[in-house]
Amino acid sequence: MNFIQNFRLPIRKSVFWPPILILVLTLFASILYSGIFEEKMKGIQAWLLQHFSLGYSWLSFFMLILVLWVIISPLGNYKIGGKNTQPRLSFLSWFAIVLCTTIAVGILFWGSAEPLSHFLFPPSFKNIESASSESQAFALGALFFHWGFTPYAIYTIPALAFGLLYYNGKNSFELGLMLRPLFGQKLPRELNNGLDMFSLFAMVSGMAGALGAGILSLSGGILHLIPNLSQVLVQVFVTFGIVSTFILSASTGIEKGIKRLSLFNLFFFLVFVLIFLILSKGGNFIQSIFLGIENYGKEFLDLSLQLSGKGNQWTYDWSVFNFAMWMAWAPMAALFLGKIAKGRTVREFILVNCVLPAIFCLIWMAVFGGSTLEFASLNPSAYEKSFTENGPESIIYLLFQDIGFENLLTFLFLVGMFISYVTAADSSTEAMASLSMKGKTKDVFKVPSGIKIIWGLLVGAIAFVMIFYSGIDGVRILSAIGGFPAFLFLILITLSLILLSINPSKYLD
Fold it and tell me: What local confidence, expressed as pLDDT, does residue 267 receive?
């Protein structure tokens, strides 16, 4: 009886169904008109990135400046939930969940592939010779820029605004409340539902695209280790394993499954880095950190404001595209990150959501990016051939091969990919369920499991259909296009947080 009651889902129909219908139509279009559909989607994406390129870059830069201002502003002393509120999570658990929610599989996949791309194909506006010491330094600086403090500021601003206004203002669980300092206490229902619907769509399509890429990467890695296995059966097994694990984790709640899996994921990251450093004999790890920081500082203003790279294809393909993807996910991620920060001060929030994750990513990128560049500089033609013929996903395996412990490192890498996607997906599922739920729960940390299971199954089904019938590129591009409404929304959220930081007592007391 309890099982049946769990599936009487209290959903907001105007928010729950439209994203699903749009994605189903998108899948049919991508299957029936695969070439035309993907071409049109790429055209729309290119148009948005080119015409709003400066907007994405300048907003990202300004959000980082706003984070610095909030630290020293009167708002920095405020506690999310009120001055007498106690945290629900320990500091370590909180940091582990935040880190694993935001990085997903990005640092694993791009830690080697991105710096190699900048090393072999540096932007024309820099006038740097390919595969040179100058391109190596630029590659680390650009890598630190794309995975450092700026992207985490994109997450921090909306998450902080939501956490403060949701708990301190005792508001309902909806994205529109982040705009109340700007537009007043109550937004029109149509606007609230529209914001929630578009954000859900961006999150679901992004999760499905990421899951599809994760299934292909994991399946490819398993087949790399055991070539005789059936590709279809491996993909079925990987899909079932990922979806069932993150549904189970999300269903047990934030303080059980999500917390435990995130702590395990953090521990695994640390062990993996340590093993990699031992097996690779450290490489030039320390040198890579200092070289990366030095060139991060040199390139920061130029890349942030497009001082020399405006209108360049490299800028569209890397900086603008990366920040558009972060922005597409930011509003939905904000719901979860804001919710779990109850009982923490604003300065603690910025430390855990921006400063510490960025430092972790920079160290990770110095280890794997620096090692890749070190080996690639010894044999650039082999790495370029692998990159162009086998794709960026092949680079990490080539690196493991050069180090000399290919099977062990590949196995650990695949385990890391699996855990990382699951820990990011379970928190995203939690946020999607909270947003699409009608009414309130007695405990905001506990959302009905039935809604989480439905979202998990839908994401898994969409990803599986994409892999076998239409490919993942169309829906992944659609997710990036979904970053444009999020870009406009984030402009308004940034303005709201400015008002909140100038006069917090007006909106929070």
Answer: 96
